[in-house]
Write a structure and sequence with these properties.
This is ParB/Sulfiredoxin domain-containing protein. The chain is globular. The chain has 13 helices and 5 strands. Helix content is about 50%, strand content about 5%. The protein is mainly alpha-helical and about 300 residues long.
Length: about 300
């Protein structure tokens, strides 16, 4: 039976880089614009909180990088130079925000063991799966990442050549969506991928939403439209509709009653932890799953002030 360690307030000093980790600080880390655009952007308040945390505690979670061997992709150096990658280059996969803010405040950071991929497509698929495992995705992010995963699978990228019908059924079950919704999301993702990085980041941040009929119409004519025309059409008009991404909604008679937010109490929190402690894991968790669970636990610890 899994028994969690007792949690308490820690007075330990922020983790300092070891000699081996300090060596990492001298390694140039590069950014792929293609991979960077998969990252969920931070809001102003989220960035301020993360900056202060890094200033006070350093970067606790190591950065994940990909050491390129055979693949060629466009990258941005630390000096802002745009060039083609070469063997041995280290490209950031997870930790873009932490790396940028660590550089800004002069904090230490660590590197996790390198990831290895044979192609940019494999790295893209990894990035998609990583983003889908994040907590609290907004509607735009969820729709875009699910749609992109469908497109990757149907196109056979990453070695998965699932047929469209089978793929939409699998994803519908995995994410609790209707099959038509999965197809809508796939068209939304294709349209957003044709837009500029600035437009895409703004959309993923939730600065605006796009009506389903609008992006479906753009998707029909996408081969005959320039990037500027696509963006103009998507913004006419900008919608505040929460259902902009095209998710199927229940009929009014079938809508569930409004649920009031639940209040977290000592009793309910302790009861939930006790129940989890008594349960056995059905299978071993992957490293990525462990990372997501750790993020959730860390967020809970911060919330209750341990």
């Amino acid at each position: 039976m899994f028994t969690p360690k007792k949690l308490g307030r820690s007075n330990a000093a922020p983790p300092q880089a070891t000699e081996a980790q300090k060596h990492n600080l001298n390694i140039e880390l590069l950014v792929s614009p293609v991979l960077r655009d998969y990252i969920s952007p931070l809001t102003e308040s989220e960035e301020a909180i993360l900056r202060e945390s890094i200033r006070e505690e350093g970067v606790r979670e190591p950065l994940v990088v990909w050491t390129i061997m055979d693949a060629e992709l466009e990258i941005i150096t630390e000096d802002g130079e745009l060039r083609t990658s070469k063997p041995g280059d280290k490209v950031i996969l997870d930790g873009h925000h932490r790396y940028r803010l660590a550089k800004e405040v002069g904090a230490d950071y660590r590197l996790a063991p390198d990831k290895t991929f044979d192609s940019l497509a494999e790295a893209q698929e990894y990035m998609l799966q990583l983003q889908l495992g994040r907590r609290n995705l907004n509607n735009n992010q969820s729709a875009y990442y699910i749609g992109s995963k469908y497109n990757f699978n149907v196109q056979g990228i990453g070695g998965n050549k699932s047929q469209g019908g089978k793929t939409k059924t699998i994803l519908a079950d995995e994410f609790g969506k209707g099959e038509r919704t999965i197809l809508n999301f796939s068209k939304l993702a294709k349209v957003i991928d044709e837009c500029s990085s600035a437009f895409k980041v703004s959309f993923l941040k939730g600065d605006f939403s796009i009506k389903k009929d609008t992006y479906l119409e753009v998707a029909k004519n996408i081969d005959n439209l320039s990037q500027e025309e696509i963006e103009n059409l998507l913004q006419e008009p900008l919608q505040e509709d929460a259902n902009s991404t095209g998710e199927e909604q229940p009929k009014p008679a079938d809508r569930a009653p409004i649920n009031r937010p639940k209040i977290l109490t000592y009793k309910s929190l302790k009861s939930s932890i006790d129940k989890l402690s008594e349960m056995d894991l059905k299978r071993d968790l992957s490293d990525d799953e462990k990372k997501v669970i750790k993020e959730n636990i860390d967020a809970l610890i911060r919330k209750i002030g341990l």
